Amino acid sequence: MKKLTAALIAAGAAGALLLSGCSSSDRGESSGGSSGSATEASGFAADATIGVALPQKTSENWVLAEQLFNDGLKEAGFNPIVQFANSGVTEQQNQIQAMTEQGASVIVVGAIDGSQLGSQLEDAEENGAHVIAYDRLVKNTDAVDMYVAFDNYQVGVLQGQSLLEGLAARKGDGPYNIELIAGSPDDANSTPFFEGAMSVLQPKIDDGTLVVVSGQTSFEQVATQGWKAENAQKRMDTILAGSYADTELDGILSPNDTLGRAALTSVAQAGKDTPVVTGQDSEVESVKSIMAGEQYSTIYKDTRELVAQTIKEIQLLQKGEDPEINDTDSYDNGVKVVPSYLLTPVIVTKENAAEVYANDSTLAPLTK
Ligand code: BGC
Hints:
Elements: H1 2-19, H2 24-31, H3 37-41, E1 49-54, H4 60-75, E2 79-84, H5 89-101, E3 106-109, H6 118-126, E4 130-134, E5 146-150, H7 152-171, E6 176-180, H8 190-206, E7 210-212, H9 219-222, H10 229-243, E8 251-253, H11 257-269, E9 276-277, H12 284-291, E10 298-300, H13 303-318, E11 340-343, E12 346-348, H14 353-356
Parallel strand pairs: 1-2, 1-3, 3-4, 4-5, 5-11, 6-7, 6-8, 8-9
Antiparallel strand pairs: 10-12
Helix pairs in contact: 4-13, 5-6, 7-8, 10-11
């Protein structure tokens, strides 16, 4: 009864806010940390509908997120609508529109294409929803209140450093022949991953320690449409046939585990020695490969932590409080710097895997 009364009061407050014509920019400002009056007034029902728009199942972390959001939001008393958009951008746009029509108080978005959701998210905000970009930034729109993610640029830095460390450990003295792989060009994360890595690798390319034998070093040349393993594998097959007939390939910068394993398959099929290959996501197959001495490294971004932080932000918004923000200058979406809560990614190799995964019941057994 108490809960119901609180919910009705909150619903009334949200309605009053809508009637008073609070614009999305009012809410954007207040969630950015400035004066709290608009935010305080914008709490919503404790059993509100929360939409979670996930992209395609391009890696295990997204599949895990689906379940964690469903369970966690229900446990917090909300009514979750969690959807993948397996057939692409249009499906995701339609899903967000439908979440708005169903009165979602918050829409959490893991965008397939961060630049294609502006008008749907603007509609959502006009209808009183808060918008949280989850894992991937939403670009070129004001209609995003905050961003919750692991620091993507730092992921790239760690991958670059680990490629250099792995080369020194496994391949002796340089110079080293390497190739570069980047993620899907429509995913807003792919550029910070690549730029972070290149901030470490470019000076070593310039001084001759690293040689990219194919000559393909620009993001456009090395990107992998749709994060698809077969696209990365095909490109690597072509490069191996064209540039490595009489040369060893020492290392491959891979932005995630799925593409890293695709690259390893390509190299194995070409009958070459195993290069040092980076990754990301701590996927089961890659952790096994690391423990077997094949893939060199991965990144641990604990999805449980990321979803828990997102749900915490939703609970703060529900109570009309300011969200938790720990970064206000790193993630510019083209229209504004989006206030962010960034978590810290961890690099994992065979050496520290047992320690890093100690509290992860799926991964810890693989390190024994
Ligand atoms: C995520 C990565 C993931 C990739 C492909 C990125 O946006 O941050 O963890 O590997 O999408 O699913």
